[in-house]
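Tutorial handout. Part one gives the primary structure; part two gives the three-dimensional structure as tokens.
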Amino acid sequence: MRIGLIAPPWIPVPPPGYGGIEEVIDNLARGLTALGHDVRLFTVGKSTCPVSRRWLYRSPAEPIGDHFREAAHVAAAYQALADADIIHDHTELGPLLAGRRGISHPPVVTTVHGPVIPQNRRMLAETARHASVVAVSRAHARSFGDIPVAAVIHHGIDLDVYKPGPGTGGYLLFTGRMSADKGVHHAVRVARRAGWPLVIAAKMREPAERAYFDQHVRPLLGRDDDMLAEPPLAIRVELMRHAAALLNPITWPEPFGLVMAEALAAATPVLAFPNGAAPEIIDHGRTGYLCQGEDEMTAAVARVPQINRWQCRAAAERRFSLTRMAADYDRLYRAILDCPGRMISSRTGTGIR
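Part two.
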């Protein structure tokens, strides 16, 4: 099968630093290639994903979110991938423009990586009229309401990169965006109350991220806490492998939460607030703890030694590998190609995990 993947134009694939969508696309491209497919990726020229690559912009487009640059990128992508059997678009604007242009071949799949909110609901409803829409968790799919969802497919990660670790570093870990939504201030307070050092590995590029850090996080840090601004992947993996636990006190309904699956692959238990997809990723009492607020999370830190780290790794191998993700998408692509002219929808029972 000739499969065209379209990445957003903002970050190379794989990402040199923070970039969850780009990491997923890289894993999917390699997983589909391993299944024997001819994968063609439309991205930016600085990408290094080991598949056939095409691009309009040599360097990542700036500023992030510029609709004119995104429109030019996706228009060029659909032209370059016109001979594919199926196009899998990971941009926000691409599937909508494809539908407006009346493109019916190749058929289009789009994975929605962000939340469904009032500002994008109408656009997603229009997209779903001509593209098969994928949600990344069951919680995510429920937020679509009456917008048809073709499949729920959890993200997969490279288990050869995120290897199991001993958890003997003597610290708790937070990694993610420096944002109130991610609950960094909660993580600092929990670690302080539990008597553990906290290592923070965070994306902190935007003015809002820096302002949040200065106002709400920096004043809480102690001399034993460590703040790393967007460390390279190899360092981030080692931090996960040696952390006693990952703290993920998210305060919003995050559609997936890749960092939780990465921590499990590193054999590291996860302590999370039960928002978004967290209950689908964490098995309470087996691979971590779902905690209602800071008090419960602080108490759960003392129970971390009760978690068998190999249970964490086994859960990642069983549920969150790039091989499993690629196989799920392979089944969806085949279902779409076997039913030309008919939309695949979860309401038919097709493609749901």
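Part three, for discussion. Residues 322-338 form the longest helix (17 residues). The chain has 13 helices and 13 strands.
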